[in-house]
Design a protein that fits this description.
This protein is an alpha/beta fold. It has ten helices and six strands; from the N terminus they run E-H-E-H-E-H-E-H-E-H-E-H-H-H-H-H. A six-stranded parallel β-sheet has the order 2-1-3-4-5-6, with helices on both faces. Helix 5 links the parallel strand 5 and strand 6. Helix 3 packs parallel to helix 4, helix 4 crosses helix 6 and helix 7 packs across helix 10. It is globular.
Length: 213
Amino acid sequence: MIRVLIADDHAVVRRGLRTFLDLQEDIDVVGEAEDGEEAIAEAGRSRPDIVLLDLVMPRLDGVAAIRGIRECSPSSRVIVLTSFLDDDKLLPAVRAGAAAYLLKDVQPQELVGAIRTVQAGESELHPAAAARVLAELADGGPRGEPRAALTPRELEVLELIARGLPNKLIARELGVAEKTVKTHVSNLLGKLGLTDRTQAALYAVREGLVPGS
């Protein structure tokens, strides 16, 4: 079962999400929160696999809540579910470690698919969000220097992450154990100063590691 925490300051949104998600055989809604501080407290208590998080909430905003959730429940992955696509919300959320960024007009089955994708260790961005993050990465920051610290195998793994392959397929592609791939992913994220696979994939595109990018 995928354990999900819903954090949104609108009770009707929380109720609608819970009603729909409770219909899924592989999803268990383990808690709700109506503001950022409560989201952190509930994440620490219930240790959910996935946190569905609004960005605009009372007491503590979503970006600060993402950081707090990652500190108190490191295994939890955050899916931002918001009405806003502004750069001042999107980019800080990705930097804080959001594994997915979706808009509230997402179709119900797309949301369920995103939950399953993120639970499998992948990331997902709304197309418009991905375009904005790519543009921001293309314009800022030094290029090439962190990349030099990666081993040839880590560079291969990074390229395959950018192509959207999960760890299992990367392991098959490289002829190594999936546990070995997880180690490479952890090492390359640390060397590049990134928090998750979404940022790694975007970095790879910016650095031209993906053919055609």
